[in-house]
C-alpha cells in the first residue's frame, strides 16, 4: 500500500499552506513530484488515487495532470534514467552521436530499458543547457559537455552506485 | 567592457551566500524601496524604460501600473522561471550564480505591487536550483528581509518556489497560472490579462526572472539613470545566452549598443565560430524567432549595421529581420543543415503544443512530418509549398502565441533557405547519409 512517511506528510502540509484556504489543489504538481520520488520513480494508479485523497480532489483531476506533464512517468523506468536532449542547439553540438553511442553501448533505443532494469534511455526536448551541449539529465542533476568518454564514466559510476546500494 | 548591472558580482567567491552578497551591497534596494510609496516605485520602473525580458518586451512599469486593485482582493506577483525556449538558459545562470539578486528584486516588486504571497514558478527540470533559491529565501528571511513586518514597515511577504513538471507551454503566463492552480497547462484567452484576473482569479503580475532582477539596479540608480544605459527603447542591459557553433557558448550581459558582428567575433563574448568555420545563419532570440542568414545578420536590408537591441534586431520585420525575443542566441556554422535544424524545432513545438486549438495541434504535427520526410530525402517539391501553406494557416489563428512560435521558424527557413529544401528534394540519395 502506498503511504507517505510522517515527515513526508508534514512536507505535504507545508506545501498546502503556501496557497489560500481552499486552494489546496495548487499543491498537486509538487505533491506528485514527491510521490514519484517516494514510490519507485513512477506514478501508478494507486499512487495517483492516494494523492487525490490526500488533497481532497477527485482522481480524474490527478490523472489529467499526470498525463499532461512530461516529467511524470506513468510506467516503471530503469534505476537510472538517461534523458538526452536532442533539440536544435544540442543537435548542432553532436547530441545524435551521444544517443547513438548509448545505443551501441547499452543496446537500448529511446524509450527502452535494459533487461536488468538498470538503465532507461529517453530523448527529450531542450532542457535549458544549450550552451553546455551535448547534455543529459540524470536524476536531479545535469551532465553536460558530454563526450563518449564521459558517457562511459557516467555508466560506470551508476553501476558502482547500484552495486554499493545493494 | 560594457556596463554590467546584473552579473557584475556574479563571480565574487561566495556570492551565492547571504553574507557575501550583503557585504557587496546587496539588499540596498529593499532598504531604499521600503521607504518609498509603492506608486513611486512603479514610477521609477516606468522611467527606467525596463522592458519585459521574457521575450515580449512589454514595459514592466506599465504592466505594474495596470494591476487592478479591487477592494479586499489579494494581489500576487509571480516570477516566471519556466525558461524553456530552445537556446535560452540565461535565467538559470542568474539563479544559480547570484540567487539573492532575484530574491531582492522580488521583495521590491512585491512591495510595489502589494503581494504578500509571491511565487517563483520554475521549470521542473531545474530541480537543484530550487534548493539554491530556497536557501536564499531562508537566509533573506533570517535576516529580516522577508516574513512579517519587514523593516518595521508593516509589510508582510513570503516567497514560495513552485516546480513545474516538464511543459514548455507553462512558460506562457496564463498556462503558468493554470499550472500554479494545479491544472494542465492550457493557456487562457487574453484579455482579461493576468493583471486583472490571474491566479485564483486575483490580480497577478507575471514577470520574467531577469526583469525582476533588473528592478534592483533600477531602484539603486534611479529610473532616469538606468534609462541612460543602452539605446532608444532598449534601455539597461540584457542577458544573452549564446550557443551553437561558437567558440565560447555561455551567458553574457550586454548593454545593447554593441553590433551583432562584435558580439559573435569578439573575445569578450562568443569568440568567433568554432573550428575555424564560417557562419551560415543565426537565430538571435530563441528558437521561435526568425532565422537570419549571415548577410542579413550583420547588416540590415538597408545596409546598416545591425545591433544587439530590440529595434535593430527586428529591423526589416519578418521579411528581412528577426527579434530580440528571449535572448537565446543560436549560431549555425556553414556545415549545418537548415532543414534538419528546422525539423528538430518543429518536433519540439509539436511535442509542446497543449492541443487546445486545432491549427496548432494539427499544424505542428503536419509540419514535423513533412520536414522529416524532406530531411530524409522522401520529400516532393510541392511539400515545400505545403509547409508554407500550413505555417500561414497556424499563424494568428490560435489562443496563445505557441502556434506563431512554431510557424515562424519554418516560414523564415523557407524564406531564406529555400534552395536547401529544394536540394533535399533533388538529392534524395545524399539525404540518407
Ligand atoms: N523565455 C522563454 O523561454 C520564452 C519566451 N517567449 C516569448 O514570449 C513572447 C510572447 O509572450 P506573451 O506573454 O504571449 O506576450 P504578450 O505581448 O501577450 O504579453 C507580454 C506581457 O505584457 C502583458 N500585457 C500586455 N498587454 C497588456 C495589457 N493591456 N494590460 C496588462 N498587461 C498586458 C501580458 O500580461 C504579458 O505579461 C514571445 O514574444 C516570445 O519571445 C516564448 C517562448 C519561451
Ligand atoms: C509558448 C510561450 C512560452 C513562454 N515561455 C516563457 C518563459 O519560459 N519564461 C518567460 O519569462 N516568459 C515566457 N513567455 C512569455 C510570458 O507569457 C510572459 O510574457 C512573460 O513571463 C512576462 O514577463 P516579462 O514581461 O517580464 O517578460 C512565454 C510565452 C509563450 C507564448
Ligand atoms: S496555440 Fe497551441 S499551445 Fe497555445 S493554446 Fe493553442 S494548442 Fe495550446
Ligand atoms: S537544446 Fe539541448 S538543452 Fe537546449
UniProtKB/TrEMBL annotation, chain A:
Lineage: Bacteria, Pseudomonadati, Bacteroidota, Chitinophagia, Chitinophagales
Matching Gene3D superfamilies: Glutaredoxin, NADH-quinone oxidoreductase subunit E
CDD domains named in the record: TRX_Fd_NuoE (cd03064)
Keyword Transmembrane helix belongs to the record: no
Residues annotated for [2Fe-2S] cluster binding in this entry: 85, 90, 126, 130
Classification via Pfam families: 2Fe-2S_thioredx (PF01257)
Keyword vocabulary terms for this entry: 2Fe-2S, Iron, Iron-sulfur, Metal-binding, NAD, Translocase
Name of the protein in question: NADH-quinone oxidoreductase subunit NuoE
GO cellular component: catalytic complex; membrane protein complex; organelle envelope; organelle membrane
Record-linked PANTHER family: NADH DEHYDROGENASE [UBIQUINONE] FLAVOPROTEIN 2, MITOCHONDRIAL (PTHR10371:SF3), NADH DEHYDROGENASE UBIQUINONE FLAVOPROTEIN 2, MITOCHONDRIAL (PTHR10371)
Keyword Transport in record: no
Biological processes annotated in GO: inorganic cation transmembrane transport
Cofactor: how bound: Binds 1 [2Fe-2S] cluster.
Cofactor: [2Fe-2S] cluster
Similarity section: Belongs to the complex I 24 kDa subunit family.
InterPro entries reported for this sequence: NuoE-like (IPR002023), NuoE_dom (IPR042128), NuoE_N (IPR041921), Thioredoxin-like_sf (IPR036249)
Gene Ontology MF, one: monoatomic cation transmembrane transporter activity
Amino acid at each position: 500500500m502506498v503511504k507517505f512517511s510522517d515527515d513526508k506528510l508534514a512536507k505535504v502540509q507545508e506545501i498546502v499552506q503556501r496557497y489560500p484556504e481552499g486552494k489546496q489543489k495548487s499543491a498537486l504538481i509538487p505533491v506528485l513530484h514527491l510521490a514519484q520520488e517516494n514510490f519507485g520513480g513512477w506514478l501508478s494508479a494507486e499512487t495517483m488515487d492516494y494523492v487525490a485523497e490526500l488533497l481532497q480532489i477527485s482522481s480524474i483531476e490527478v490523472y489529467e495532470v499526470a498525463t499532461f506533464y512530461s516529467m511524470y512517468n506513468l510506467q516503471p523506468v530503469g534505476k537510472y534514467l538517461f534523458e538526452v536532449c536532442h533539440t536544435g542547439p544540442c543537435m548542432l553540438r553532436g547530441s545524435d552521436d551521444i544517443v547513438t553511442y548509448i545505443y551501441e553501448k547499452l543496446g537500448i533505443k529511446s524509450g527502452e530499458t535494459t533487461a536488468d532494469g538498470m538503465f532507461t534511455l529517453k530523448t527529450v526536448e531542450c532542457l535549458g543547457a544549450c550552451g553546455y551541449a551535448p547534455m543529459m539529465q540524470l536524476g536531479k542533476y545535469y551532465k553536460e559537455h558530454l563526450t563518449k568518454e564521459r558517457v562511459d564514466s557516467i555508466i560506470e559510476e551508476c553501476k558502482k552506485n547500484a552495486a554499493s546500494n545493494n | 567592457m560594457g556596463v554590467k548591472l546584473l552579473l557584475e558580482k556574479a563571480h565574487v567567491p561566495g556570492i551565492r551566500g547571504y553574507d557575501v552578497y550583503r557585504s557587496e551591497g546587496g539588499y540596498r534596494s529593499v532598504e531604499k524601496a521600503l521607504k518609498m510609496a509603492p506608486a513611486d516605485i512603479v514610477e521609477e520602473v516606468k522611467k527606467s524604460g525596463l522592458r519585459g525580458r521574457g521575450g515580449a518586451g512589454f514595459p514592466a512599469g506599465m504592466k505594474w501600473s495596470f494591476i487592478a486593485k479591487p477592494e479586499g482582493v489579494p494581489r500576487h506577483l509571480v516570477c516566471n522561471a519556466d525558461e524553456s525556449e530552445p537556446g535560452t538558459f540565461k535565467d538559470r545562470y542568474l539563479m544559480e550564480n547570484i540567487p539573492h539578486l532575484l530574491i531582492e528584486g522580488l521583495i521590491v516588486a512585491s512591495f510595489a505591487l502589494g503581494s504578500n504571497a509571491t511565487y517563483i514558478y520554475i521549470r521542473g527540470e531545474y530541480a537543484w536550483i530550487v534548493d539554491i533559491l530556497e536557501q536564499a529565501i531562508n537566509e533573506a528571511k533570517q535576516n529580516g528581509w522577508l516574513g512579517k513586518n519587514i523593516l518595521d514597515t508593516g509589510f508582510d511577504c513570503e516567497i514560495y518556489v513552485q516546480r513545474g513538471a516538464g511543459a514548455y507551454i507553462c512558460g506562457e503566463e496564463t498556462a503558468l497560472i493554470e499550472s500554479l492552480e494545479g491544472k494542465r497547462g492550457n493557456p487562457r484567452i487574453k484579455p482579461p490579462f493576468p493583471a486583472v484576473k490571474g491566479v485564483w482569479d486575483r490580480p497577478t503580475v507575471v514577470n520574467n526572472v531577469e526583469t525582476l532582477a533588473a528592478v534592483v539596479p533600477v531602484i539603486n540608480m534611479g529610473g532616469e539613470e538606468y534609462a541612460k544605459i543602452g539605446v532608444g527603447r532598449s534601455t539597461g542591459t540584457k542577458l544573452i545566452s549564446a550557443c551553437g557553433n561558437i567558440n565560447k557558448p555561455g551567458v553574457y550581459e550586454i548593454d545593447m549598443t554593441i553590433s551583432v558582428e562584435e558580439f559573435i567575433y569578439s573575445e569578450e563574448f562568443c569568440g568567433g565560430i568554432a573550428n575555424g568555420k564560417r557562419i551560415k545563419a543565426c537565430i538571435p532570440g530563441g528558437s521561435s524567432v526568425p532565422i537570419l542568414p549571415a548577410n542579413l545578420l550583420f547588416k540590415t536590408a538597408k545596409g546598416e549595421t545591425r545591433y544587439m537591441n530590440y529595434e535593430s534586431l527586428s529591423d526589416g520585420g519578418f521579411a528581412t529581420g528577426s527579434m530580440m525575443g528571449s535572448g537565446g542566441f543560436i549560431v549555425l556554422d556553414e556545415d549545418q543543415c537548415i532543414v534538419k535544424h528546422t525539423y528538430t524545432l518543429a518536433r519540439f513545438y509539436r511535442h509542446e503544443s497543449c492541443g487546445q486549438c486545432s491549427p496548432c495541434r494539427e499544424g505542428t504535427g503536419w509540419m514535423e512530418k513533412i520536414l522529416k520526410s524532406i530531411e530524409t530525402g522522401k520529400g516532393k517539391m510541392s511539400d515545400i509549398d505545403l509547409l508554407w501553406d500550413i505555417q500561414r494557416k497556424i499563424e494568428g489563428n490560435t489562443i496563445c502565441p505557441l502556434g506563431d512560435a512554431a510557424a515562424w521558424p519554418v516560414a523564415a527557413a523557407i524564406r531564406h533557405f529555400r534552395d536547401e529544401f529544394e536540394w533535399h528534394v533533388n538529392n534524395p540519395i545524399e539525404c540518407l547519409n
